[in-house]
Design brief:
By secondary structure, the protein is α/β, with parallel strands linked by helices. The protein has one domain: 3-Layer(aba) Sandwich (Rossmann fold), CATH 3.40.50.1820. It has a seven-stranded mixed sheet with strand order 1-3-2-4-5-6-9, sandwiched between helices. A two-stranded antiparallel ribbon has the order 7-8. Helix 5 links the parallel strand 5 and strand 6. Helix 3 packs across helix 4 and helix 4 packs parallel to helix 5. The radius of gyration is 18 Å and the shape is globular.
Length: 281
């Protein structure tokens, strides 16, 4: 289970497995992959907001803070396996509430990198996922896709997940059969001579983007805009949105941000389903 329980609303689907007959009318089952050091209960309100916006069901992957701490030392293979189990759970739920349609996967922060790895045939030795057929769209929220190979946090994230994603499924690899949406924010300017918040942001941006993160680089307080933009995806850049929860500033999973990115995500998912149903992009 996902730690908070799968959340479902009554679906209008009546013929399981027949989503291809009416792809524009299907409501998505959403799989949420949380970010680094997060835990499933942190996404409870977010899951409710997804249901309020028309998701037929929501599954939050059962990946907890200790799992991320272990991954930082040993690599992300185990986390990807846990996320793969959640994907199977969400696929079973989709058969009940979304006519078995491919999932809409939302990855927050490092969760967006895990979402991409789930589509790779063998992202890690001995780990076979190849789940692209089960996924209709991947939406990444402040995910650090493009990282520096230099020192600091960026180097470790690159070693653990980003490099593997780029090596196996670079960019919008399965488009148009899978829709891709990258969401970033320019809420906080990085400036080593600025306010305390701006100085911290500068150091974090520098750790992820290396020398490309100069003064006046903008981001969500952790991930600079340029690092969050997956090549080939639809790009959305928000204002006033923080990377995560608890900062006192709205984050990607609160209403103001979702009002902007959710309609785009839903459109990308429906277009990918229509492509699969008709064989035409």
């Amino acid at each position: 289970m996902d730690g908070i329980g799968s959340q479902v609303r009554e679906s209008t689907a009546t013929a399981p497995g027949n989503w291809r007959r009416h792809p524009k009318d299907i409501r998505p089952t959403v799989l949420v992959l949380g970010g680094f050091l997060t835990a499933p209960p942190m996404y409870r309100s977010f899951a409710n907001r997804l249901l309020e916006r028309g998701a037929a069901g929501v599954v939050v992957a059962s990946v907890w803070t200790p799992d991320w701490l272990i991954a930082a030392k040993r690599g992300a293979a185990a986390i990807t396996t846990r996320s793969g189990r959640a994907l199977l759970e969400a696929s079973r739920l989709s058969k009940l509430v979304s006519d078995g349609a491919p999932l809409l996967v939302v990855g927050h922060s490092a969760g967006g990198l895990i979402a991409r790895l789930l589509t790779a045939p063998e992202p890690f030795p001995g780990r076979h996922f190849g789940a692209a057929s089960r996924i209709g769209a991947i939406v990444t929220l402040g995910s650090p896709h493009a990282l520096s190979a230099g020192q600091g946090v960026g180097r470790r994230i690159n070693e653990v997940v980003s490099a593997a994603a780029e090596a196996t499924v670079p960019g919008a690899f399965y488009a148009p059969e899978v829709g891709y949406v990258s969401v970033a924010s320019r809420a906080i300017r990085g400036d080593l001579a600025g306010t305390g918040r701006e100085r911290v942001a500068y150091l974090l941006y520098r750790s992820l983007a290396g020398r490309a993160a100069v003064t006046e680089t903008y981001g969500d307080g952790l991930v600079p805009v340029q690092a969050a933009m997956l090549a080939g995806a639809r790009h959305i850049v928000l204002d006033g949105t923080a990377h995560g929860q608890g900062s006192g500033v709205p984050w990607y999973g609160t209403d103001p941000a979702m009002d902007e990115w959710w309609p785009v995500a839903l459109a990308a998912w429906h277009e990918a389903l229509a492509c699969r149903a008709t064989g035409k992009p």
